[in-house]
Amino acid sequence: MADAPRKLPPGELVIASHNDGKVKEINELISPYGLTAVSAKSLGLADPEETGETFGENAAIKALAAAKAAGLPALADDSGLEVAALGGAPGIYSARWAGARRDFAHAMKRVEQALCDAGAKDFSARFVCALCLAWPDNHKEIFEGEIRGKVVFPPRGDKGFGYDPIFVAEGRRVTFGEMAPQEKHAISHRADAFRKLTKACFAED
Questions:
Q1: Who has the most CB within 10 Å: 3, 84, 113, 192?
Q2: Count of domains in the chain?
C-alpha cells in the first residue's frame, strides 16, 4: 500500500521558477491556503539544468534543487504545449523554442511555421503541467494536469504568458491570451494539476 502524501502546513513556499508570469499565476493559486510565495529568482537561486525526459522529471529536478538550496518546501512547475501534428512538439522543449531571450512571439511563429511545413490540417493540441512539491529531505510529490484544445493563428490576446495567445480550449472560443485570469485558473492544465496537489498535500483546517 502506497504511503499517504505528505501534508504541507501554512508558511513559506519557494516557487522554483524564474518565470515571472508563472510565479504570479501559482501565487494566485496558493494564496487562499495560508502560504506565502517566495520565488527562486528573489532568493537568487540558480536554475538547474533540466535533463529530464518528461514534465514530471523536470519539475522534480527544479523543486528538489530549490528546496535544498533554500531549506524550505518548494513547488516547481514544468509545463508546455504539445501539438498533435508535430508529434507532441514543442513539448518539454516549449521554453527552449522561445530561445535564450524567452521570446514567445518567436516561439509561436515557429509552431505556425512547423505546421505549415508539415502541411498540417489537424491543429489539435494540449497544454500539460506537472507540479512537484519537494522538501529539503528529498521527499517529493508529483501531480499532473492537462487541458485539450487547438492552436490558432494569428495569436490573439495579451493576457497570460507563453503560448497562451494561440491556444483555444475545448468548448471555448477565446484563447488563453484573451481570458481573464480567474477564468483561465478555473480550467487550465496548471489548475487541474493544482487541484490534485491541494487535495493530497495541503493541510486541512
A1: 192
A2: 1
Assign residue 191 the CATH number of its domain: 3.90.950.10
- What's this model's pTM, rounded to 2 decimal places? 0.88
Per-residue pLDDT of the chain (205 residues; tens, 9 = 90+): 457 889 888 889 999 988 787 788 788 888 888 888 888 988 999 889 989 999 999 999 999 999 999 999 999 999 999 999 999 999 999 999 999 888 999 999 999 999 999 999 999 999 999 999 999 999 999 999 999 999 999 999 999 889 999 999 999 999 999 999 889 988 999 989 999 999 999 866 5
Domain range enclosing 116: 11-201
Q: Say if 4 falls within a structural domain.
A: no
78 included as an active-site residue = yes
Domain membership of residue 2 (yes or no) is no
What's the CA gap between 168 and 25, in Å, rounded? 18
C-alpha cell at 155: 495569436
Catalytic entry in 20, 77, 78, 192: 78
Query: String of b and e for 24-49 (b: at least 16 CB within 10 Å)?
Result: ebbbebbeeeebebbbbeeeebeebe
